[in-house]
Amino acid sequence: MIDSKHIREQFPILNKRINNNSLVYFDNGATTQKPKVVIDSVVKYYSEQNANIHRGVHTLSREATELFESARQTVSSFINSKTEEIIFTSGTTDSINIVANGLDIPKGSEIIVSQMEHHSNILPWQLWCERNNGKLKVIPINRDGTLQIKKLESLITHNTAVVALTHVSNTLGVINPVNEIIQKVKAIDQRILVLIDGAQSVPHMSIDVKNMDCDFFVFSGHKMYAPTGCGVLYVKKGLMDQLKLSKTGGGTIKTVSFERTEYVNGPLRFEAGTPNIEAVVGLAKACEFMNSIGVNNISEHEHSLLVYAQNELRAIEGVEIYADHSNKAAVISFNVKGQHPFDVGTLLDKYGVAIRTDHHCTQPLMNYYGIQGTIRASFAIYNVKEEIDIFIEALKKGIKLLS
Ligand SMILES: Cc1ncc(COP(=O)(O)O)c(C=O)c1O
């Protein structure tokens, strides 16, 4: 049992009033709010620790470097990887682009994604295919949002180079059985590389990349209580040296001359320029914050919110939930018959309820359902049942006003 009152007290923004109502923040899939420990770590960094890293011999620079590298350790143990397998990036999108631009795979290769991917896990691969005469293939889904895994097997050919798949759908909340899928893919062809987009799984569930056995795992700090502008690219041991550089600059080299440059090995090779140091420091604090509650406790609490909210929504006439089951992370997408999601979202805001209304960067998924967008409520550890009651009441009032 978690202590919701104590947890909520740690998020200063939850005291904010919106249109004279308490803020009910259900847009966590887009970005989460930040706990005081994370905010304080950024303030402390700039008040006491700020210097550029990896270069200076002076005390501050050494301290900042230690902080940054100890964050790498914290983050790596958070997903059960090794420190040297963690590259800091600006976020999930950046991480996927680094992989898509860096893979040394033959022209004409086939890349498999799924119908439910976020645009960030489609476009870098689409671009690769356009530039390299490749083929983008799509794993279809069922109406309940589950993947047609059997179809995946039939999509694989001897030209398949990559399977890039989301762990949790940002729009539907559906959890893909990635361990089982990776086993299947590797059993067909050990050479196929598997990238898992963990942007929506890391905030909600315990992650073990070793057990998962993926080749690449990517996520964003800002969706898991950390500052914006930092993210992670996990690369399985042995694969990093095979990734081509897509950006280079200061911090990545051993020696440079106009004739020839020798690069370092390991994560620093991919972290060109000054990184977002304070965000990385905050990311480590966010991992500690989640660990202090217990990631399994977070999953359990959010799951109870999901089940409660879905039951309440089902009882409202005209509401259609997409992927209406509970094998999901704490994300609910729905529509109200006859109403545009934007109108519903705007009315909810009048009652202080922040939810997301659009295609959620998953237009191919919207096309599958034949809709323009959905209303999405996504929960985090600080949300409580009482907020769901406020949301449901506001929704009912909104529907009455609109009809
Ligand atoms: C599943 C998924 N992948 C990728 C992204 C892109 O994340 P970012 O904008 O932090 O790079 C998101 C963001 O919503 C997402 O939900």
What's the N-to-C terminus distance? 40 Å
**SSE succession:** HEEEHHEHEHEHEHEHEEEEHHEEHEEHEH
Per CATH, the class of the largest domain reads Alpha Beta
Q: Identify the overall geometry.
A: globular
* Biggest sheet statistics: 7 strands, mixed
Q: Return the CATH architecture of the largest domain.
A: 3-Layer(aba) Sandwich
CATH 4th-level superfamily of the largest domain: Type I PLP-dependent aspartate aminotransferase-like (Major domain)
Which fold name is given in CATH as the topology of the largest domain? Aspartate Aminotransferase, domain 2
Percentage of residues assigned to helices? 25-40%
Individual helix count: 13
Strand-residue proportion: 15-25%
Number of domains: 2
Total beta strand runs: 17
Uncertain stretches of 5 or more adjacent residues = none
Mean pLDDT: 97
What is the rounded Rg? 22 Å
Strand order of the largest sheet: 4-10-9-8-7-5-6
Alpha-beta content class: alpha/beta
